[in-house]
């Protein structure tokens, strides 16, 4: 990946001022070192504060309304050799603010203009992109894990209802195949295998610790018929439900 800087500046924007909708021909990173206000990125409104920053793609309309005096650092840049686009939005810095430190180092390079400063500026810019992408990847991983745990909890609570993989995938915002792959990678079973195991475990418990007839247990555990229950139970437990109960009583 190569980063090429187009512009870089720092300014203080006064409270109760407004910058109308505008766009650039390159990426722009707007870093809010202090202050508070709102910014619209396309049609989405975001509230900024100290330690947040916006990523804007080329051609993206955005504005800015300041509630308090706002110190910003803006850098415009282009990327080559990156097989994905940066995701637009407003982000929050880490506690130690690595992006702010890199941006301040860029401002120092710009002011001092020592030998090879253009190359150093692009190097620091590349570091900023890497730091941002790392943050996005970690956030995406956590979000994915949260979604998968939600899907598993939904199965745990509703195993006796009709559940399809398509419904689960739609519920957490993934395609069928992507959800199935992520679920199996996370929990060691496909969603359907996990659901079946949950039903079989519950059925086994009821066979051993209740007087419910097999037909009622099949219905209680979400099986569509006695025949389906018997077939799947035997496949998973090695013997039919009635035999399983009789041998252990």
Per DSSP, the total helix count is: 8
Q: How many distinct beta strands?
A: 9
- Give the C-level CATH assignment of the largest domain: Mainly Beta
CATH level-3 fold name of the largest domain: Jelly Rolls
For the biggest β-sheet, the strand order reads: 1-8-3-6-9
Proportion of residues in extended strands: 15-25%
Annotated CATH architecture of the largest domain: Sandwich
Task: Give the proportion of residues in helices.
Answer: 40-55%
In angstroms, what separates the terminal alpha carbons? 67 Å
Order of helices and strands: EEEEEEEEEHHHHHHHH
Radius of gyration: 28 Å
Low-confidence stretches: none
Q: Determine the mean pLDDT.
A: 92
Total number of domains: 2
The CATH H-level superfamily of the largest domain is Regulatory protein AraC
Features:
249 residues; alpha+beta; Jelly Rolls; Arc Repressor Mutant, subunit A; five-stranded antiparallel beta sheet; 49% helix; elongated
What does this structure look like?
This protein is α+β, with helices and mostly antiparallel strands. The protein has two domains: 2-141, Jelly Rolls (Sandwich), CATH 2.60.120.280; 159-249, Arc Repressor Mutant, subunit A, CATH 1.10.10. 49% of the residues lie in helices and 25% in strands. The chain contains eight helices and nine strands. The chain has helices at 98-112, 117-158, 165-172, 176-187, 191-209, 214-220, 226-237, 241-247, and strands at residues 2-13, 18-22, 27-34, 36-41, 44-49, 52-56, 62-66, 70-80, 89-92. Strands 1-8-3-6-9 form a five-stranded antiparallel sheet. A four-stranded antiparallel sheet has the order 2-7-4-5, with no helix packed on it. A hairpin with a 2-residue loop joins β4 (36-41) and β5 (44-49). α1 (98-112) packs antiparallel against α2 (117-158), α2 crosses α3 (165-172) and α3 crosses α4 (176-187). The radius of gyration is 28 Å and the shape is elongated. The N and C termini lie far apart (67 Å). The model has no long low-confidence stretch (mean pLDDT 92). Keywords: DNA-binding, Transcription, Transcription regulation. It comes from Paenibacillus sacheonensis.
């Amino acid at each position: 990946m190569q980063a090429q800087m187009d512009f870089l500046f720092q300014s203080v924007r006064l409270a109760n001022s407004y910058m109308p909708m505008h766009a650039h021909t390159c990426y722009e990173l707007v870093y809010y070192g202090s202050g508070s206000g709102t910014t619209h990125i396309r049609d989405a409104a975001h509230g900024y504060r100290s330690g947040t920053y916006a990523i804007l793609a080329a051609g993206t309309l955005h504005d800015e309304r300041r509630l308090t005096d706002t110190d910003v650092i803006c850098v415009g840049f282009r990327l080559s050799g990156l097989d994905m686009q940066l995701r637009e939005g407003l982000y929050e810095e880490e506690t130690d603010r690595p992006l702010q430190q890199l941006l301040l180092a860029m401002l120092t390079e710009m002011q001092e203009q020592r030998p090879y400063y253009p190359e150093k500026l692009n190097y620091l810019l590349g570091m900023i992109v890497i730091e941002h992408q790392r943050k996005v990847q970690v956030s995406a991983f956590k979000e994915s894990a949260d979604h998968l745990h939600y899907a598993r909890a939904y199965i745990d609570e509703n195993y006796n209802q009709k559940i399809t993989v398509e419904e689960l995938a739609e519920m957490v915002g993934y395609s069928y195949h992507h959800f199935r792959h992520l679920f199996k990678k996370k929990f060691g079973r496909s969603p359907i295998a996990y659901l079946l195991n949950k039903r079989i475990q519950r059925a086994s418990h009821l066979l051993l610790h209740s007087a419910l007839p097999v037909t009622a247990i099949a219905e209680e555990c979400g099986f569509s018929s006695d025949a389906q229950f018997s077939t799947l139970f035997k496949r998973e437990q090695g013997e039919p439900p009635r035999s399983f109960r009789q041998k252990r009583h």
